[in-house]
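Example record for the data management plan.
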Amino acid sequence: MTETTNSKRPRLLIVDIARGVAIIAMAIYHLSWDVSFYRFIPVDVGFDPGWVLFARTILSAFMFLVGVGLVLGHGDGVRWPSFWKRWAFVVGGALIITVSTWFTFTESFVYFGVLHAIAATSLLALPFLVTPLWLTGLVAAVIIALPFFLTDPLFNERIFSWLGFWVVPPPTNDLVPLFPWLGVVLLGVLAMRIVRQTAWLGKLAAIQPRNRLAGTLAWMGRWSLVIYLVHQPLLLAIIMPLSMAMGTQEAGREIDFLRSCQSSCEASGTTAALCATYCQCGLEGIERDDLWEQVFTGIVTAEDQATLDRNNRQCSQLIYPDLTAD
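Corresponding structural encoding:
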């Protein structure tokens, strides 16, 4: 069975609509992450299992649609001028995100996020537009499965983490490694290549909803990359000043610290009252020495650790006066 060759390349409105839905879901997730990060809500969106599943579902849809789009745009032969134009736009957007997050979140800047992954996987997936279908499926399965069986602390380092075999990922606000996400792109390639060989292509092309909602979603899908680039800066431009005015981030991190400290302290057998004194002392030391970023990122220099140890000894002496002070 050979693949359909259609020089007109019928535009599938349903694919544009799917992209539109995905970009709206992405914006909802980023809004939720922002209000969580700036402590407007008590849920930690970055670690809450439900939100993590939501984020992974959105990312899966995006990467699958990357593969679908490659087949729709280049399944009859790569149109290099068009490909390089779009690829350069994605790379440029990825660089903008890296630079902007470097200044905004220095310790957790985005060095291989969604756009970086789209740029890399778009190139790597091109050969699979013409490989046998069984080979495309096999490679996709291997790439998706491999991170579950192969991990090494070496890949915890940023320089290697983009491959995806880490044990613990380095601190970053967005990391979309090649393994397993290249495999998801290849699943999109495989699915659309199969569609092009069957009557499903005509059936999908015949789906042409004309209502306003469908038109809006399709428009958003066609401009999804632009929307992706601009929506987060717009959200932060509103949320950051509001957080500074209301003091939500400072209040939220203090509450988180005291709650975590109290729980750990009581687990060691110390009474709740003594733990409250100890933790309040620890909070005052962190604020005095401006160690919030080090505490929350876990990136601590030898000098920072010495300061933390000294503060811990001083706080311990408050609840156990018989301890020798530094």
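Summary line stored alongside the record: Residues 247-319 form one domain.
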